[in-house]
Amino acid sequence: MISKLSTSLLAVVLALGGVQAAQYPLTESHHGTTFFDGWRFPAETYDNTTNGDTFWATAQNTSLLYTNDAGRVILKVDNTTSVPYNEKRYAPKLLSKNTYGPGTVFVMDAVHLPYGCSVWGAFWTQGANWPAGGEIDIFEGINQRKENMMALHTSGGTCTIDQNSQMVGRIDATDCDQSANSGSGCTVYDQNENSYGEAFSQAGGGIFVTEWTNDAIKIWFISRSNVPDSLSATADTFDTSVLGTPTAEYSSSTCDITNLFEPQTLTLNIALCGDFAGLPALLEQTCPVLEGDKTCYTTYVIDDASATYANAYFELNYINIYTTNQTAGNDVPTVSGIGKSTTTITAGVSKTASGTGSAATNGTNAAGSNSSAGRNGVEWGLMGLIGLGLSLII
Q1: What confidence score (pLDDT) does residue 228 get?
Q2: Average of per-residue pLDDT values in the chain
Q3: In whole angstroms, what separates CA 22 from the centre of its chain?
Q4: pLDDT of 159 higher than 90
Q5: Could you state, in order of their start, the residue ranges of all structural domains in the chain?
Q6: Distance between CA 17 and CA 6 in Å, rounded?
Q7: For residue 181, which phi and psi values (nearest 5 degrees)?
Q8: For the residues 307-321, what does the mean pLDDT come to?
Q9: Which ranges carry the GH16 domain (predicted)?
């Protein structure tokens, strides 16, 4: 027979276990004039992976990468240059200096997302050996669409969407393997039309949250009017349990998350045309039909594009990383020409501001060892409580 004391103790143990599973400490905060210090530029100078028509901007392209008077970060497509035929247009692409593993939450707060005919904006992660290392598409929007698209991309093994998963998004394709669905991945569309395009900015933007654990990869979109008070640039911890049903969920019950996803690099970019936004069948869903032998490139990218790309920009309040993972690689050198770093990088417990006299850290430093030991102590403590509770029950 279970006593009231046993019942109460067990409830406390389960509650503690639930809190530990849902809460994550802040380890990086990218915002304001120091935003760019946590990111690097791609090695390649142009879009050589999606057949897009962009040269990637660098630190010298200060008219495309900057912080505005409101303290928000702007990443935009060049819409002031008349581009001659056979040339490409400059656009932004940033990759995180760190890599991340399971036990991580990515948060992007934006007031404007890039949209317009030929525009292909994305906030996503990728493994070093893509597609073998996996990809998580958190935000991806093209042309004049009205909704965000989320997806996983994998290679080898088994990864599909569990049709019984609880989510509010619309499942479009269930097989995540890169060889299936013409390489689209297992896609889920947000049914909230405030999740992309003009409606997104008119609603004041919103927040995208991704939780990656070995049990599931979950993505939420919260429109500005519904953002909880606990979601802010300065929140030291984040509890995913306050978010409710995710927009998209990829469960380990049908996807081998543990083996198909290696440490991920965050990527933020705007491509033009290319293998997705530039496909005539997709482009013409929301943009005028291409005339004669015109292509996406000749119609939109070249010549004057001041109106075409007037809305082709990110305007970001912040990107925060919350993680309990100790194995992700953390290396945050200062980006020359962008500004002084105050990005907080640690192994998951306390925050160290780089650029303020503290050295950049990595996943094997003393801070990581101490935080790991502390967490292990909590875990053993919980196990002891569980053991005590069970002994009382018995």
Answers
A1: 87
A2: 82
A3: 18
A4: yes
A5: 28-361
A6: 16
A7: 55, 35
A8: 98
A9: 19-285
